[in-house]
Design goal:
heterodimer, A: mainly alpha, ABC transporter involved in vitamin B12 uptake, BtuC, 2 strands, about 70% helix, B: mainly alpha, globular
């Protein structure tokens, strides 16, 4: 089996420095958004999807596991956060925690089941599990079926941050995104992340070196699912609703597309991909179903000609890991 | 009891489609090492081709010729896909095949949705198969009985072709070791193309069969393919007969669930998948993947 990335570069101090420079530039750019006149709602939405794509990328790009059901974590966390905020009237910070806890629980269960099969079967199992959840949420009373949970109060975070003000909400989402991003960056560069990459490159060899690869993959799955849940919980505050679209397989497909466009197994790729795809949806909204056709075409083009993705190509050109 | 038998029949019909689709997936996976995500979209295309053939003023080709023509047309479309796109993925990680065919599925479904919306188009049952028979214990609509019998014949025919004929022997040999088979002077790339055409043709045939029952809709294959994936996970893709039996069996179980506990009829296949994975992770006909 050929590896996903054909040019794995060693982690040198220089590479670390490059990545930190790009990170700081990204953080500054994002922090200046409210002063530029760019529609903050669009950027907030993109940030939530960017975090989701980064979490997904942790699994595929570094663990070699293609999950085709990552929307289930986002959707589940969204529903649970929304329910906690609206029905239980919990403050925002606890609402987010409820969502994260739900995604954590779900990833424990689904990870335990899906990690039993590898490669292509893993993708089919995660897809089937997310479809199972979709039907459960369709029928469960607390999700309100087709309508979804609407009109979710945004509230005051920690009693002081008024999330109904767009600028405050924007910075809260941004801080959440950056925290999640740094956590993923830390995981990738930890000893655990190194073992994960070795499993991706050559699992039998990792096993022969004495690593219990199933446990590593399971942990990666749980981390990825929980972080995806965090993204879903943040999205509740931006969209102020939680609906079935967030658990549908087409959403899982979009996450895959974002990561593929940006670059599988790159650190910044999923962020770029998420912004690109969300922007595309925004500008092409009037084209109706042609958006689906365009997304499909991007899939085809990426797979056939552009497998490294945007950031992957740039990194390859400069011989850097980004 | 009437209702039970009726659901049993619905289950057998769904089982026919699961069997035809998972059979095609298994054949394609054996040769191309690709999980064909576009299978549901091509199933839908089969139904639409039959619809066009009938409703085009110049052609107005009926059900019986469509049963042959639609799979051939969609099969050729599939072979073009294989020649122009899928063949470039040889030697790459499996997941790229999944992503590429997912993209193809989005394109095909999106195009049809643009022109036909999401509502269903009716396709009439052919005159010869209209009406029903009273079997004493239940009323059997002839068309539904025909779908089950005909699907079973096609499934067994495919099994015979692959397991018992010389051509099937080449195919199985090429699945095991393509390089060696090429060394014997057999054109393996052409065989791969034809295999993809065959698998896709089976999906299109299922589409034509389902057109009078389920109506013709652009998204008719989108959710079905996910159930078929679960069927494939349960049965494993190692054996042709395994796919056929698993397909029919799961259809029947699903039909039974509709009678005894309708709330779970959408989810029962997925729940069974989870149970099988917990008990026997390699699937029922179990080769490890």
């Amino acid at each position: 089996m050929t590896a996903l990335t054909d040019d794995t570069l060693p982690v040198t101090p220089r590479a670390m420095r490059d990545e930190m420079v790009v990170f700081v530039v990204m953080a500054l750019l994002l922090a200046s958004v409210p002063y530029t006149g760019v529609y903050p709602f669009f950027v907030m939405q993109a940030l939530c999807f960017a975090l989701l794509a980064c979490a997904f990328n942790l699994l595929i790009g570094y663990g070699g596991l293609l999950s085709f059901g990552h929307a289930m974590f986002m959707g589940t966390a969204g529903y649970c956060s929304a329910h906690a905020l609206k029905v239980w009237a919990l403050p925002p910070e606890l609402g987010i925690l409820v969502g994260i806890a739900a995604a954590f629980g779900l990833s424990l269960i689904t990870g335990y089941i899906s990690i039993r099969r590898q490669g292509i079967y893993f993708s089919m199992i995660t897809l089937a599990l997310s479809q199972l959840l979709y039907f459960i949420y369709l029928q469960a009373p607390f999700t309100h079926g087709e309508d979804g949970i609407q009109g979710i109060p945004q509230g005051r975070m920690f009693g002081v941050l008024d999330l109904s003000k767009p600028t405050v909400l924007y910075y809260v989402v941004l801080v959440g995104f950056l925290a999640g991003f740094l956590l993923i960056y830390r995981i990738i560069n930890s000893p655990f992340g190194e073992v994960l990459k070795s499993i991706r490159e050559n699992e039998p060899r990792a096993i022969s070196l004495g690593y219990r690869t199933d446990q590593y993959k399971f942990l990666a799955f749980v981390l990825s699912g929980t972080l995806a849940g965090f993204a879903g919980a943040l999205k509740v505050f931006v969209a102020q609703n939680a609906s079935l679209t967030d658990v549908h397989w087409s959403m899982s497909g979009e996450v895959v597309l974002m990561t593929l466009v940006g670059g599988l197994g790159t650190i910044f790729g999923p962020v770029v991909g998420a912004f690109a795809i969300i922007a595309m949806q925004q500008y092409l909204a009037s084209f109706g179903q042609w958006v689906t056709v365009i997304q499909g075409s991007i899939f085809v083009i990426c797979v056939l000609t552009f497998r490294r993705g945007v950031i992957g190509e740039i990194a390859h050109y400069f011989r850097r890991s980004l | 009891m009437q209702a039970l038998y009726a659901q049993l029949l619905v289950g057998l019909i769904n089982g026919s489609f699961y069997a035809l689709l998972s059979l095609g997936l298994a054949v394609i996976f054996g040769m191309l090492n690709i999980i064909n995500f576009a299978h549901g979209a091509l199933y839908m295309m089969g139904a639409f081709v039959a619809y066009f053939l009938l409703n085009n003023d110049y052609l107005s080709i009926g059900y019986w010729p469509a049963l042959l023509i639609a799979p051939i047309i969609v099969g050729i479309f599939g072979m073009i896909l294989e020649r122009t796109m899928l063949q470039w993925l040889t030697g790459l990680d499996h997941l790229y095949g999944l992503l590429l065919t997912f993209g193809i599925a989005l394109i095909v479904q999106g195009v049809f949705q643009n022109y036909f919306g999401s509502s269903g188009l009716p396709y009439a049952i052919p005159d010869q198969l209209k009406g029903g028979m009273n079997l004493g214990f239940m009323f059997l609509p002839i068309y539904r009985g025909w779908v089950v019998v005909f699907s079973l014949i096609v499934c067994l025919g495919t099994w015979f072709l692959i397991e018992k004929t010389r051509l099937g022997g080449y195919l199985r040999a090429a699945t095991e070791n393509p390089t060696l088979v090429r060394a014997f002077g057999i054109n393996v790339p052409r065989m791969i193309t034809l295999t993809y055409g065959l698998g896709v043709g089976l999906a299109a045939l299922a589409g034509v069969l389902s057109a009078p029952i389920n109506q013709v809709r652009p998204l008719m294959g989108a959710d079905l393919i996910i159930v078929v994936f679960a069927v494939v996970v349960i049965g494993g893709m190692g054996s042709i007969m395994g796919s056929i039996i698993t397909g029919f069996a799961l259809g029947v179980i699903e039909g039974m669930t509709k009678y005894f506990y309708p709330e779970a009829s959408n989810t029962v296949v997925f729940v069974l998948m989870v149970l099988v994975l917990l008990v026997k992770p390699t699937g029922l006909t179990g080769r490890a993947a």
